[in-house]
Amino acid sequence: MAAMEAAADAMLAAASRAFCSSVAVYFQIQGCCIALLLALGWAVASFVRKKEVRKMRRKMANGHSFAFLCDDVDELEHSVQEKLPRVSVIMPLKGLGEHNLQNWRTQITSLYGGPLEFLFVLESKDDPAYQAVTRLIVEYKDKLEAKVVIAGFSTTCSQKIHNQLIGVEKMHKDTKYVLFLDDDVRLHPGTVGALTKEMEKNPEIFIQTGYPLDLPSGSLGSYCIYEYHMPCSMGFATGGQTFFLWGGCMMMHADDFRQDLYGLVTGLKNGGYSDDMTLAAIAGQHKRLIWSPPVAVFPHPLASDLSFSRYWNYLRKQTFVLESYVSKVNWIMNRALFGVHCYLSWGFVCPYVMALVHIATTLRAPYSGIVKEAAESSCGLKLVSFLLICTLTELVSMWNLTRVEIQLCNMLSPEGQQDSLRSYNWGLVFVAVLVDNFLYPMSAFRSHFSQSINWSGIRYYLKDGKVFKIERENSSKYTDLGGKHLYGKKTHPSGKSLLSYLSISLAQWHQPKKYDI
């Protein structure tokens, strides 16, 4: 027993010395710098979102009670609303999760004053979502223009892309803008109007997008998904031009699809796996503008039973998109993202592993001469202290961005469910940060070598960056990231002034809303 203890002490002392070498110190400082860069990025993103919060509050203080819908109250006059262009909202559905019905209600009860149609696109009537969405349309049949479209099974691309393209074929002939939405986010009453206004104001916009704000359900898997999305959110909190695209919210010109501009329909249909990665590659290739307005952030409630295995499958799906590409340049960009993300992920985790050794050395030193000698000549505690400061700075910055985005979402949906920062467990957030960054390279390498993925009961195989084989397996009743808590919203009567309707609604609010978290 004593021999084993001495051997363990010797190993600990050797590890402590090794982790104080110049190379090890470099990697530890590099990890701290990565944490500080994340903190800086989230600080900038929160500044952009906070500007929008302050602007809305100023307008409300000046008597503009509908600032959550538009910047100028005159935009709500019937004479202005009736000139708005037609928008078709296409929602590819797959399965029925606990949050889906709630999300669909927020999407169809938009307060957009122009012509608006909703197309719910499913692969078959056997899909569990079919009966639910049919009942929802019947419930709102006098208040909206909506229909269910059966797309059939995809054979040359992912099922989502197939559903989207069938929806485009079935949209109204006078549609000017098409909005693709995922069924796992809650929409704000003014979202469609805000996106349309930007498209009208700047015809150079090729695609308009937004990004979700994850609402973890309490499981480690849900916090890992929240942590995965948070670094990506920096690229969408620009308040304007961006190079990133999220497939859960994309508004485009309908004529771009009718004319197959840049071969985008062909590129999606013939082997397309990821809608957003494909379209972002096309936009970059042809130097077209992708726009992310500051109000385009959407609550994304995660399932209460979101297990760790479902998180892993989601991570696999996210890394798998880097294996699909439409051109040589796109392939090079994906390989660069693959390498940089893997390096930064493990570069971020590495200092924490070394910190455990430094802490263990300090705790063991009073009881072992060899360990005490290593501890006295070590700079380990200084490195641990620096890492602690950087970690706290990073978590505070993440907390602040989440707080601001919750404020913004609550203000944009004043009659909807009011979310709170109090539901977040920041201890689990820290664990999720380490777990997600540790697992990302593993997932990326597995995706690279397997070239296949199972998503929502369908297995896709890639060859030369394109889907070439599809196998249908036992589909799940639930979507992988579905949510809970059903609730509805009101729509304004057709033929009446939207401003008049909102004035009545405002008068009926039983108490003022508070937006501070």
Please characterize this protein's 3D structure.
It is a single chain. With 517 residues, this protein is of the alpha/beta class. It has helices spanning 2-18, 22-61, 78-81, 100-108, 128-139, 159-170, 191-201, 220-233, 254-258, 264-269, 275-285, 308-320, 328-364, 369-376, 380-412, 426-450, 498-508; strands at 87-92, 116-122, 145-150, 177-181, 205-209, 211-215, 240-242, 249-253, 289-292, 297-301, 452-455, 458-463, 466-472. Helix 1 (2-18) runs parallel beside helix 14, helix 12 packs across helix 16 (426-450) and helix 13 packs across helix 15 (380-412). It starts with a helix and ends in a 9-residue tail after the last helix. Mean pLDDT is 88; it is low at 475-479 and 482-517.
Main β-sheet: number of strands, strand sense, barrel status? 8 strands, mixed
Q: Stretches where pLDDT falls below 50 for ≥5 residues?
A: 475-479, 482-517
Approximately what portion of the residues adopt beta-strand conformation?
Answer: 5-15%
Total helical elements: 17
Q: What share of the residues lie within helices?
A: 40-55%
The ordered H/E elements are HHHEHEHEHEHEEHEEHHHEEHHHHHEEEH
| Global geometry | globular
Radius of gyration, in angstroms, nearest whole number: 25 Å
For the largest beta sheet, what order do the strands appear in spatially?
3-2-1-4-8-5-9-7
Total strand count, please?
13
Mean pLDDT, to the nearest integer, reads 88
Briefly note the structural class of the backbone.
Answer: alpha/beta
Distance between the termini: 56 Å
